[in-house]
Design goal:
This protein is α/β, with parallel strands linked by helices. The chain is built from 12 helices and 9 strands. Helix 8 links the parallel strand 6 and strand 7.
């Protein structure tokens, strides 16, 4: 049974409850003196506490989508992807599954849209990863068969799971609802983890001698999606949004690659790449690379890019609040890069906070991306 299987969670809760009942039932017998009784008490308490901890941990993982599998949890997920060679007429995107936007109902894609699970192969970086692609209802409607659509890359935090963007943060459902109400234009969403070389947290950096994560998101990913879907190819047709680590990546991609991403939204983002056991040495002594990864340094020392940024924080509950205010002031001082913000009175670094920010963030992004146009051919 998988880590995120509901049966595993039910089994853990059942075990915790039974051990608790057993401890209460057997306690009078174990209350005697002697090493056996003492050992029994210690064993029952440890077993009950362990079962409670496991049940709580599994429940938290179900709610927040930290890890996708047992191997991911224990750091054994070390497969760095596979190389897929495609013919000149092939596609670097392979659809592996199709699902509805809403669990209930049998409405066709032209009514509610569609979510496709895909494998994406990077042509230049040789990075491969899985993702979910949301296609709006208009994508399937005959009157739009020659139209291209703006697209947004949606990134999780670290470690995160792409599934959580669909099931926990409800990006497809929110986009469909907002477009249906006329509050945003129909958009394609490409939802994935920033962790493209698991288990390493690459922070969307082109690591010297290592995974070229930034190049994957800046070049390979848009190129692959544009070959497979009717995505707007003109400047201004792509945006990127993410939370936590994904938010840092989103801001960095928009700053470093304004010719690709016309807008970047960082929900609860930080502004510099950390160095810890999950990242390892990202820069290998390259000071220019280290400075580029520091977004506050970048906006103060490099020419201001022509792009739009959105940052979010909370006055109470978020550790990035003061840094966010400083970043806003520094971006405003450039006079060219545009910046907006969402600041909540209270909200922690969690899914509930981001669900409160996502609708406004999607509306903001929709207003800054091109509305597509006619496509040369229908795919």
């Amino acid at each position: 049974m998988g880590l995120t299987d509901n049966n595993v969670l039910v089994l853990a809760i059942t075990a915790a409850v039974l051990l608790f009942i057993g401890t209460v039932w057997l306690w009078p017998r174990l209350a005697r003196r002697g090493w056996r009784a003492v050992g029994g008490r210690v064993g029952m308490l440890l077993a009950t506490q362990t079962a409670l901890f496991v049940a709580f941990g599994l429940g938290a993982n179900q709610a927040f989508g930290f890890y996708a599998s047992w191997a991911d949890l224990f750091g054994q997920e070390d497969q760095q992807g596979f190389v897929v060679d495609h013919s000149a007429h092939g596609s670097p995107v392979e659809v592996t599954d199709v699902r509805r936007v809403r669990d209930s109902g049998t409405a066709p894609p032209r009514t509610q849209g569609q979510i496709q699970q895909v494998d994406i192969a990077g042509r230049t970086t040789r990075i491969s990863t899985s993702a979910f692609v949301y296609l709006p209802p208009e994508y399937f409607q005959p009157q739009y068969r020659t139209r291209t659509f703006p697209a947004a890359v949606v990134l999780t935090g670290y470690p995160g799971t792409a599934q959580a963007l669909v099931d926990k943060l409800h990006y497809p459902r929110t986009a469909a609802d907002l477009a249906g109400k006329g509050r945003m234009q129909p958009m394609i969403l490409v939802m994935l983890r920033p962790t493209v070389a698991p288990p390493r947290d690459t922070e969307c950096v082109d690591i010297p001698g290592g995974p070229q994560s930034e190049s994957f998101f800046a070049k390979d990913l848009p190129e692959a999606v544009e070959k497979h879907y009717r995505v707007a190819r003109e400047p201004g047709g792509w945006g990127v949004i993410g939370d936590s680590t994904g938010g840092y990546c989103a801001l960095k991609l928009a700053l470093h690659h304004p010719d690709v991403y016309a807008a970047g939204a960082g929900l609860s983002a930080y502004y510099d790449a950390p160095r810890d056991p999950t990242t390892g040495d990202l820069f290998h002594g390259d000071e220019d690379l280290r400075h580029r990864a520091d977004l506050r340094w970048y906006v103060k020392h490099r020419p201001a890019p022509d792009t739009s940024l959105l940052v979010t924080s909370s006055k109470v509950g978020e550790s990035n609040y003061k840094d966010t205010l400083k970043f806003i002031a520094e971006v405003k001082a450039t006079g060219r890069t545009r910046i907006s913000s969402i600041v909540l009175e209270s909200g922690g670094h969690n899914f509930n906070t981001w669900r409160r920010e996502i609708p406004a963030a999607l509306e903001w992004m929709s207003a800054r991306l091109g509305d597509g146009g006619s496509a040369a051919d229908d795919k």
